[in-house]
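Researcher: Here's the sequence for the chain we discussed earlier.
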Amino acid sequence: MDTALINREIPSDHADLVVEDRERHLFRVARRVFTEQSILEGEHDAIFDRCWLYLGHGSEIASNCDFITRAVGGRELIFNRDRGGAVHAFLNTCPHRGAMVVRERKGNALAFRCFYHGWSFNVNGRFASRFEEGNYGKEHYGGGCADLAQVPRLESYRDFWFVNFDRNAVPLADYLAGAREYIDLVADQSEAGMEVVGSGQQYRINANWKLLAENSIDAFHGFPVHSTYFDYLKNIGSLRMDSGTNDFTARGMTDLGNGHAVIEYASPWGRPIARWVPSWGEDKRELVERLRKNLIQRFGEERGLRIAETSRNMLIFPNLVINDIMAITIRTFYPEAPDQMTVSAWALAARGEDSELRKLRLFNFLEFLGPGGFATPDDQEALENCQRGYRNMREVAWNDISKGMPRAGKPMNDDEEQMRCFWRQWRQRMAGAP
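Model: Thanks. This is the structure I predict for it:
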């Protein structure tokens, strides 16, 4: 591979947009994948129409007849429980003339009624209107043609619910592969279960969606971009590097299969689940220690301390991020254009946790992970700065994602193998392979 050539030529075929030369330890991604409409259209077909996409957490529809509406994969959906507690995902479009049936963001209802012409539906999606004889033929109500359309596939793992618009997709459990272990580490933090707190946050970033996929599992940028946050933690007494090691990259990166990857490391910050820091005050120490002992009692010392002490940033291909760090965030992002995405984020917490720890958790979430916190504005500026830099693509055509390729053994957190996992799966999907 001629590095001068690779920086000059732009391939025309999707298969050539991601180039890997393991012998020479080079990995390149053509910058046109972040800028071209035709590539985005290909992604809709090859990725968003065929991969499992996160819909929501079961706690968001905790009671029978609860519902939320959400845009997933370019579709408007209704995520709800029926009267018997069964979970559904319907396409939020009336079979009559196509209007969105449910216009509220969330609520509790015994039925759904389209405001345009009054067609009504039970919470199990069945058509519930009855019109006078002569309006419709006797076959109109048969065969389900007047019912709300269900998504082709709806499955869950540990109360994380996913949809797939490809009826022939592999089961969700197979798709998640090694990510299941890390979802378990989140779901097992409370015997009472986990719950989404509040309604979440939505914002836009003027950059390509794949830049956020990379950024979410990129430890290389952490200290340069977020140095202000680490200085702040140090100044207020919220940094602790005594969890058996002071190595921020202790556990390294794990390829979870199917484009999923995680970085795991000794936490330098407090974790409301079971890791106390001095800035929280001595009155919280005993409470946190009880949580810690409970985890060890339930899971043994090794796994209990892993849940308590270590932080994790995980990407589930293509666009689900679960950051289990100083707080827990669930984040998805969808392209609106090659240079624009919408981001949705939700705080996840232990159900029934102490009110003071809940306050700390939500403060941590807003302080670092929220759109007005330390991290997200920094990352947004970095991603938008990359997007602006791609205006020079004609002369500088390739991104380099080669860091750590010569390393023997397990990749480190600040290597770039986790991004390479994402891009290999992207290349495979765009080439038409499942």
